[in-house]
Design a protein that fits this description.
By secondary structure, this protein is mostly helical. The protein has one domain. It has 1 helix and no strands. The radius of gyration is 34 Å and the shape is rod-shaped. The chain starts with a helix and ends in a 32-residue tail after the last helix.
Length: 98
């Protein structure tokens, strides 16, 4: 009889260990899902910020045009409405000066 009790006790202990392992794995999975969801939210915020910046730029351009300015200025103060890359504007970039 004591052998049967010991076998039942061993089986119960194994079952308890298995349940603890499963609970631990479930906790890890839940944390990973939460981390993934947080990363998705961060990605969405970054995309939203880019959209906001773009629409603010477009709105500023439209506002300058509606105020009667013939050539809207960009953030760098260029009159061509384009970003300034640091080079002088030239109509004939490929023609050499003689």
């Amino acid at each position: 009889m004591s052998a049967e009790k010991r076998i039942r006790s061993d089986e119960a202990e194994k079952e308890e260990r298995t349940e603890r392992k499963l609970a631990h794995l479930a906790k890890i999975a839940k944390n990973q899902i939460a981390e993934d969801a947080l990363q998705v939210q961060r990605d969405h915020v970054a995309v939203f910020k880019r959209y906001v910046a773009h629409f603010e730029k477009v709105h500023a351009y439209d506002l300058q045009r509606s105020e009667g300015s013939e050539e809207p200025k960009d953030a760098a103060g260029n009159g061509d409405g384009e970003e300034n890359d640091g080079r002088k504007d030239s109509d004939n970039d490929d023609v050499k000066d003689e």
